[in-house]
Amino acid sequence: MTPRDLREPTLISIVIPVFNEEASVDTLIPRLFSLFGREGLTADVIFVDDGSKDATWDKLVAWSTRYPALTLVSLSRNFGKEVAIAAGLDMAEGDAVILMDGDLQHPPEVIPSFLARWREGYDIAYGVRRTREQDGAFRRAMSRAFYRVFNSVSNTPITPDAGDFRLMDRKVVDAIRRMRERARFMKGIYSWVGFKSTAVEFDVAERQGGKSSFSSGRLFALAFDGILSFSTAPLRVAMYTGAAIAFAALALGGFYLVRTLLLGIDVPGYASIIVSVLALSGFSMLQLGLMGLYLGRIYEEVKARPLYLVREVVGKKGAEGISGADTNVTRLKNLV
Ligand code: UDP
Ligand code: MG
Question: Where are the alpha helices (DSSP H) in 123-169?
Answer without folding.
Answer: 137-153
